[in-house]
Amino acid sequence: xxxxxxxxxxxxxxxxxxxxxxxxxxxxxxxxxxxxxxxxxxxxxxxxxxxxxxxxxxxxxxxxxxxxxxxxxxxxxxxxxxxxxxxxxxxxxxxxxxxxxxxxxxxxxxxxxxxxxxxxxxxxxxxxxxxxxxxxxxxxxxxxxxxxxxxxxxxxxxxxxxxxxxxxxxxxxxxxxxxxxxxxxxxxxxxxxxxxxxxxxxxxxxxxxxxxxxxxxxxxxxxxxxxxxxxxxxxxxxxxxxxxxxxxxxxxxxxxxxxxxxxxxxxxxxxxxxxxxxxxxxxxxxxxxxxxxxxxxxxxxxxxxxxxxxxxxxxxxxxxxxxxxxxxxxxxxxxxxxxxxxxxxxxxxxxxxxxxx
Length: 357
Prior knowledge:
Layout: H1 8-24, H2 69-77, E1 105-112, H3 115-126, E2 129-134, E3 140-146, E4 149-156, H4 159-164, E5 168-174, H5 178-184, E6 191-199, E7 203-209, E8 215-221, E9 236-243, H6 246-257, E10 260-265, E11 271-277, E12 280-287, E13 299-306, H7 309-318, E14 322-328, E15 335-339, E16 345-350
Parallel strand pairs: 1-4, 5-8, 9-12, 13-16
Antiparallel strand pairs: 1-5, 2-3, 3-4, 6-7, 7-8, 9-13, 10-11, 11-12, 14-15, 15-16
């Protein structure tokens, strides 16, 4: 796939209008969130909507003004609140990808209020280059590249959209037959928020919500297969669904995608569930305690790999972002939770050998 094969309509023409439509259908007590491979608010007010944000409380932050509930959770709960599967339980994977098996997170993109600033930030933190595109409606979209290989997308929110939703990272799961998968969603307890549709020559997409309320994109590849480089420093390496209803969510993905899942005791009463494709772990699910964290939506989160976690801390701060928690130890390696200057939240982890999605 060439660097010019881009999902330009995905964030600007499909995902954002869908969020507005979903919000109109959802009350403040219904948490719905969204993750990639294989969150989140910069706003001086409380947002009431689905897909990554539902009644997120804000607090003043020294650099950019406001925060979100997920940051508060991770900053207060410590390392045991989010865990990645131990490396001994995961297979090493090739970093270069030309295709993805169904059920594997294959792509992630950022919707942001300041594309130019976001590009500068992530270039400083991860060394990304960019292939800039224009969407049909004139909204910018940039492909992030490492050594000419695609690793993520970044898109500019329009002014109206920026008033209604926060900056956030969004995730897409690979499917072989989008129509068939979407057809299984309602019967399996989920909702179809964006029906199957063509995205020019790049592929086909839909957006769904699982029974626990976590939202995620589905992607049937054509010209754009997804991230071409993963599990290497400065690329995507793991994804996790933080949800109140782990078992129902896991069963849903098994039913519609053909994955399997397994749960392991991580110690201290913390259980961790992984989704598997052909016995290879591709994503995780972690339980959210609704009594301890009532304002946190059920949502997918994204992890980027680094070769130097301490260096990442310094670079994130120097580039205008903020480290909300960490670094702290996890089985695959030390990890931190950060926010970019516009408020989108992401995780960074220094992976030990054998770890990675």
